[in-house]
Amino acid sequence: MRRRRACPPVLASEFAGFRFPPEVIVLAVRWYLRFALSYRDVEELLAERGLDVDHVTIYRWVQRFTPLLAEAARPCRHRPGERWFVDETYVKVSSLWTYLYRAVDQHGQVIDVLASTRRDQAARRFFVRALTHGRRPAEVTTDTAPVYPRILDELLPEACHVDAARENNRIEANRGRLKARLRPMRGLKRLRSVQTVSAGHALVQNIRRGHYELAVNTNPQLRLAAALTELTAAV
């Protein structure tokens, strides 16, 4: 008797079991990451469209699906450029100042984001993470913080290190957009929320600027919505 070949298992969508369809969930996540809105603002916008969603539910959607969308987009991402601009800023979480490290390349692509309560350890961990994105930079520009020369000598001895503060204007201007996104998030309680929203903001910014092979033939104003629609099918 001929034996039937077993079919490969069908992986369930991460959206399975949710009350609302993926389109509504991703719409709420996109609005929150793209614009300087609070969770209650997104709740109100959805209510105007006849969708009754509590702001706590929207928070849970952002925390759950932002990393999944970023991971689904990873294979479509362009390689970082050879010139990196790195700095750290500060965000208050549960009344404690938290370090937020970011790097962008010369094309404006955000390479990586890392939130941490420990400065020196976080700086090293940040560079280790950033180097997994596919290219070792030939030049790294930082501010004059003393932690950078030691870490760069260890991890990127071949790279030219520029530590003049005035040379880092590129990332400082870029950082202002992230600060605008974080400003409505008053009373931050969890480090995870800062990390998730900062990484999600970077994903949205990179897609809008064409740093992913997603929605490449779409009107730039509609690129983000089209790209997240593509990613939704892969989550």
UniProtKB/TrEMBL annotation:
GO MF annotation, one: DNA binding
Highest classification ranks of the organism: Bacteria, Bacillati, Actinomycetota, Actinomycetes, Frankiales
One Pfam match: DDE_Tnp_IS240
Domain of life: Bacteria
PANTHER family linked: BLL1675 PROTEIN (PTHR35528)
Alphabetically ordered keywords of this record: DNA recombination, DNA-binding, Transposition
BP GO annotations: DNA recombination; transposition
Statement: the UniProt record of this protein carries the keyword DNA-binding: yes
NCBIfam families referenced in this protein's UniProt entry, alphabetically: transpos_IS6
Protein name in UniProt: Transposase
Domain DDE: 82-211
